């Protein structure tokens, strides 16, 4: 039997962080990256989240090496914990190796670990693999992609990257080598998906340096800058700006101090003469001569900036007049903690500068046009999107298809794949016999599926009557709507093995379930999100009430049939039938679906459910979808109005979102819409770049404020018909 090349993700899929990918060929395994994740807010007492490496422990005799793309924590942070169970040589560039060395020293693993430095352009033989290091640009020095050579072909693993034509160190990404590999033939591309939602190109790191100069020159007070400690080039620009403005720089925070030490010793950072001073000595200087570089850009409770904000820092007492520059974006999941620190700084009278529009931060990840370049250069036969949440992986899949790839040659770990991996892992953990394992692997199908039905729970009031009618007590009674959709990804043979339709089950067997998922999210969820905020401000409380209001129903129908359905990939008649079923479901007299419940986290919902239809409609027709654009104005009104008929209502969302609207509540319609549209961290792109969008949404918001929501919805409906 021919050997297979397996690509197994143990972290970094459907999440940001915890990156770890396993490549297995025959009896050889290599591991790419070994990162940690940030704990969720509900993980009380948890400091570190690491990948499940039980598969590596079981197969540790096969592991030929751990290969590191770069030195960020989400790529190296789990190394000391994994090494306790799995010992293998680590291969990394000089900067990454220097940071790993610090971890090995801290955990007393230096003697037991083989750490090997490899330069970009060189290759390492590891069993049946040959791993080639290829220089890329990222937000940390010495980042690389890998060309993993096997007898089956070459896999290009990009790691985190961007295309920066003017990098701080002058070392541009090696596109030439990627192009050569594409000409030779690339079996599979495994690529970063973090910024796939953002059109265009990621700005160069150099633009941040110009912002620092502008912020430093116009300030007569002390400046405190927080950024990722690992962003050596960012810190270098702080040092350069301070030196040019005649300021001294002190550093605080353990990780920042360690990074400065490693990067200067290895030559990745050059400190201007007489610029760096001890944190205890800088206090004696005039405030207009001080710059403090600190950790804490993610709001971590033990970080130096957090301690400054809450007055527990031993060397720095922060107060009114100080300027704090947040030169970093919040990692998804950290918005609440970052918001907490910002709020406390404001409470102290500190001027906090943190808006991305000021170019205080640029991403280290590739946007759409850069990703397209990599796809075009490598010309892969197969593609696996990595490093991203589910929506990012799906959007990257769509981008690959736009570049000409067959959908059947793109692999995303959907629920069927996850279920298969979970079942097989548990079966192995439980030491089940080999024949049973073989049966699981070879005789079973783990299908990707989609289920859509509202199930409201145990009918306590009706249960006695139903049990009496049935003649027995049924503890599993449940109440469900008449509608039901069950999509199973499988062929005709599967439909014969599982004759669901003969049993009256509403099952569709399809070759690809993703178009049905898109239909559900864009029509059902998108319909909800585009309607509920406006409908609530128009005086309604329950979804079915909206369907009884002729004006609201007409607005919804126009959005569904004229603006959303034309952008979907399924046949129009199928989408229209689904939309009609959605309307019937919304009108269900037995379901009290409260608009305020649906309104929870509307910003992220609008991004995922409505924005794709807006951009697709604009691209297809060259015009804005009138009703969906209006829904953006309705969102602005809902988040800033705060009252309906003189009564306050709750607005529930992430702290960063609530802080934004609190800061802009008194803005003019144009100013509010423009500022909100520019928040790339909310939308994944600058919506001001959509032709005519900002002006149209601002006009809608102005009308809502002047005439009231009901009248504005009616005007929107009439304009859409014209």
Helix-strand layout with pairing:
Blueprint: E1 5-11, E2 20-25, E3 28-32, H1 54-58, E4 63-67, H2 73-76, H3 79-82, E5 90-92, H4 94-106, E6 115-117, E7 123-126, E8 129-135, E9 144-150, E10 153-157, H5 175-184, E11 188-192, H6 206-217, E12 223-226, H7 232-244, E13 248-252, H8 254-265, E14 290-294, H9 304-309, E15 323-326, H10 335-347, E16 351-353, H11 368-378, E17 382-386, H12 390-402, H13 415-429, H14 434-443, E18 449-452, E19 455-457, H15 463-470, E20 479-480, E21 485-489, H16 492-497, E22 507-510, H17 514-537, H18 543-548, H19 550-564, H20 572-586, H21 595-598, H22 602-609, H23 611-621, H24 626-641, E23 643-644, E24 647-648, H25 655-664, H26 669-677, H27 680-683, H28 693-707, H29 709-721
